[in-house]
Amino acid sequence: MFWRAAAILVCLLCGMQRAELRAQSAVPDPPVAGSAADSELNWDNRIWFSGQMNFITQYHPAFSAKYSGPNSLPPGAQDASSRVLTLFTGFRLFQNTDVLFDLEESGGHGLGEALGLAGFTNLDVVRNPSLGKAPYVARAMLHQTIPLSRKLVAAAPGPLALAPAVPERRIELRFGKMSTADFFDVNSVGSDSHSQFMNWTADNNGAFDYAADTRGYTYGFVGEYYDKGWALRFGEMLMPTVANGIKLDWSLPRARAENYELELHPTVWRERATTLRLLSFVNHANMGSYREAIRGYLAGADPVPDVTAYRRQDRVKYGFGVNAEQEITPAWRAYARLGWNEGHNESFAYTEVDQAISGGTDWRGVRWHRKEDKLGVAVLVNAISGDHREYLALGGMGFLLGDGALNYGRERIVETYYNAHGWRGLSIGADLQRVWNPGYNRDRGPVWAAGLRLHVEGSLAFWQRTAP
Q1: What residues in the chain have per-residue pLDDT under 50?
Q2: Packed helices 386-393 and 290-298: angle between N→C axes, nearest 10 degrees
Q3: What backbone phi and psi angles, to 5 degrees, belong to 450?
Q4: CA-to-CA distance for 446 and 439, rounded, in angstroms?
Q5: pLDDT value, residue 210
Q6: Is residue 130 packed enough to be buried (19+ CB in 10 Å), middle (13-18) or exposed (0-12)?
Q7: CB under 8 Å to 35, separation ≥6 — which residues?
Q8: Nearest-CA neighbor of 397 among 267, 255, 293?
Q9: Model confidence pLDDT, tens digit, residues 91-108
Q10: Does the chain have fewer CB atoms within 10 Å around its N or its C terminus?
């Protein structure tokens, strides 16, 4: 089975964190980008293999609920476990051209099958439990860099980009299968459920209804322009045919998602790194209208409001986001996100959030002599539009929410985690979340969710030296 093969591979990778294949045995390690030594060597034909395994187990005790509906988080105590296994591969076809291909397998379940919370407690959970367990292609893309300057800056080679150095001014183009969240709304403090926060609205902007199938992937194009101190990116992605669906609509005139982001690196506090990202997205899809569903119900056309009965192909959902991160000390960072979308048309691809505010911080364990460990705390607040809340209050169902009634209140979440580094690529984490007004309902909760995480990763990088 795929997961057994991946487990064996990752264990091997953990024991061989870096292997290098050189055309000449006397060639030293790749030099620091931009150095004099770097200008004398031409490193090419890089091959990348890496793997990761992430296992999360969560438990919530029984909580108070005056009523429950088809899409409610069950109030009885329960536990659930999930897994995600990924094999990353890459080949540096030419000096500025990468071919990337990743296989993935995911399984297990989330608490309540990932229903009943807008800010769900485990980002690794696939939101459609009826999907099979067979491995699938997560990413398959061509990555092309177009140099616009001779000066090189250091880059961290990884599964999404293989070059150890890149031109300071450049254009990067990507085509193929990918995750929109790989390139938009990225945050170094809160974007990775494998080593940071686990909650959906801590690792992503909850109001960013980014184009994806139910596994979180899509096909598309991303173009990026990088200059000293700033970057600009654009993405055109395929949308799912139905909300939270696995099938994508391949007709761009009919359905698509445009994503825009401006990234700035201002100097605002001493010499500490600051990053600010300004996001906008526009989704075109066969979406329903909450207001039309409410009108249909009140007119007696439907026994309960049903947004899926009022879908129309030319609907547009748009929104904006602000994403900031600040280095406070070398071991202490903070982040904040703000998000808003128009909220009249149905939540379609990510989660049922129309306004989101989140902020958090993390510390590396330097003070307690565990520099590879990390402690994080985040506070999240999610909200929905007036149309969306009335729809749920009248008994309507979203693809995640639906208690049958609603006593509205903003969903508020506090999350904290501790990630302990073990041996090489092995880490163990503990996570605790408290959710007030789950699914925006004051008549349910609050809910505690405790979690444990086991993460294993490793990589192999093969280098070849060619003539300068």
Answers
A1: 1-3, 5-45, 466-468
A2: 40
A3: -105, 145
A4: 11
A5: 97
A6: exposed
A7: none
A8: 293
A9: 998 889 999 999 999 999
A10: C
* Whether the Cβ atoms of residue 265 and residue 229 lie closer than 8 Å to each other: yes
- Angle, alpha carbons 66-352-343 (nearest 5°): 115
Closest of 184, 69, 193, 182 to residue 124, by C-alpha: 193
Query: How far apart, in whole angstroms, are the C-alpha atoms of residue 115 and residue 133?
Result: 20
Collapsing DSSP to helix, strand or coil, 390 comes out as helix
- Asked if 274 and 257 touch (Cβ cutoff 8 Å), the reply is no
Query: Which CATH number goes with the domain that contains 42?
Result: 2.40.160.180
Q: Which amino acid is located at 18 in the chain?
A: R
Characterize 388-409 residue by residue with b for buried, 16 or more Cβ atoms within 10 angstroms of its Cβ, and e for exposed: bbbbbbbbbbbbbbbbbebebb
* Three-state secondary structure string covering 34-79: CCHHHHHCEEEEEEEEEEEEEEEEEEECCCCECCCCCCCCCCCCEE
- Domain extent, residue 133, equals 2-466
CA-based nearest residue to 201, from 80, 282, 321: 321
How do residues 304-329 score in pLDDT, each as one tens digit?
A: 999 999 999 989 999 999 999 999 99
Helix or strand (DSSP H, E) at 260: strand 256-264
Burial annotation 430-465 (CB, 10 A radius, 16+ → b, else e):
ebebebbbbbbbebbbebebebebebbbbbbbbbbb
Structure tokens of 453? 């995480």
Residues 106/134, Cβ–Cβ less than 8 Å: no
- State the first-to-last Cα distance of the chain, in angstroms, to the nearest integer: 44
Q: What is the pTM of this model?
A: 0.88
Q: Look at residues 175, 179, 213, 15 and name the one whose alpha carbon lies nearest to residue 88.
A: 179
Considering its fold, how many domains does the chain have in total?
Answer: 1
- Distance, CA of 116 to CA of 209 (rounded, Å): 18
Sign of the Cα torsion 298, 299, 300, 302 reads negative
Within its chain, how far is the Cα of 108 from the centroid?
19
